[in-house]
Amino acid sequence: MRIDDLVEIYASSGFNARQLGEAAKLYCKMIEDDATICLTIAGAMTPVGFGGLFKSLIERGFVDWIISTGANLYHEDHFAWNLPVKQGHFEVDDMILYKKDIVRIRDIYIKGERTLRAQDKIVQQMCKDNFIDNPFTTAEFSNTMGKYSKQRSKHPEKSFVVSAYDYDVPIYISTLKDSSLALDLAPLRLKNQTYSIDFIREIIEQAAIVYNSKKSGIVEIGGGVPKNTAQQTGPLLDQILGLEHGGQDYIIQITDARPDTGGLSGATLQEGKSWGKIKDSHEDVIMVYADATIAFPVLCLYALSQEKPRKPKRLYKKLNYYYKSLAETYFSKKR
Q: 111, 158, 273, 277: which is the annotated catalytic residue?
């Protein structure tokens, strides 16, 4: 049995197997329609090795821009720099792990001194001469991180952040201050080096990407802030700027969060229609209620097996143009 056989079986069955099968086909439709595709990454996906999937999608042209938590970039860089990340077990005495200088992410073990502190020094060295006293976006931060790892790390080929740099795929960090990447800047700030994120510019850039796309879609791993950051482009364009865009053309979300508790991760994509986050609440929006570590590889491998590579859109180099174009459109409509 091949992956396309499995997806066909899923799509012709029921419950979340059917949702996953249909989501895999919708992803292929997004690729075939040449949609501008955003990948949002929540949860601890890179410590378990999923950066390889992200890398493959970037290199095939199946992901054009990314919104991620800071933790996923921080831990992905371990692999490029050959820092220890090992499989462990979730049934363990964490008091013993602490004494052995091991941190745990469920069943993944990471060394404190040899990995985390080593990574901290790498990030601090990178930032020592970059971003100081000049406002920057997290896309610029990530691009610099990819360049730095490509030029200096032992295994740059193991990092999707490096691939994003190579293919001009912007990576926005939705919660930079809620990660070790920001914690690493604390010692530098105490030395009176100032770091200021231009977060307003980056949300305008994100909306500009969507506005300048013939069609636009999102593949969401989990939910949380990355999910909303991608989806709020619709309300910014319509509610705030009055451009009557209508939101995303397609959205796929893989989540295990419930919709009835009011949490953002579980909020249905259909609910987003009321906010103008999507153009149609009936078509081309699919939620798969499943563990993303199980479901996402199926969706990816189906697309990789079915679709020919696309020409990279290289959005990072177009951000300034998109920003100015959106500004001109906004002010022309205001007049």
A: 277
Helix axes 319-334, 199-211, angle to 10 degrees: 80
DSSP letter (8 states) at residue 282: S
Can you read off the two tokens belonging to residue 7?
């997806």
For 202: left if phi > 0, alpha if psi spans -120 to 50, otherwise beta; the answer is alpha
Q: Tell me how crowded residue 91 is: count the other CB atoms within 10 A of its CB.
A: 6
pLDDT value at residue 264? 84
The reported pLDDT for the residue numbered 294 is 97
275-292 pLDDT, tens per residue? 999 999 999 999 999 999
Residue type, 119: Q
Beta bridge partners of 173: 68
Q: Tell me what pLDDT residue 227 has.
A: 97
Instruction: Please give the Cα distance from 180 to 189 (Å, whole number).
Output: 14
Distance CA 212, CA 305 (A): 29
Alpha helices in 153-223 (DSSP H): 160-166, 180-183, 186-190, 199-211
Residues of the chain where predicted confidence (pLDDT) is lower than 50: none
Q: What pairing do the DSSP bridges indicate for beta strands 108-111 and 250-255? A: unpaired
Q: Does the annotation mark 277 as catalytic?
A: yes
Tokens representing 195 are 């770091």
The model carries a pTM of 0.97
pLDDT at 334: 72
Distance between CA 110 and CA 171 in Å, rounded?
24
Report residue 231 CA to chain centroid gap. Answer: 13
Contact between 252 and 288 (Cβ < 8 Å):
yes
Q: Give, in degrees to the nearest 5, the angle at Cα 244 between 242 and 245.
A: 120
Distances from the Cα of 19 to the Cα of 43, 174, 288, angstroms:
21, 27, 5
- The closest alpha carbon to 115, from 68, 88, 75, 150, belongs to 75
Residue 233: predicted pLDDT: 98
Q: What is the DSSP letter of 47?
A: T
CATH code for the structural domain at 3-74+132-334: 3.40.910.10
Predicted confidence at residue 136, as pLDDT, reads: 97
Contact 251, 279 (CB under 8 A): no
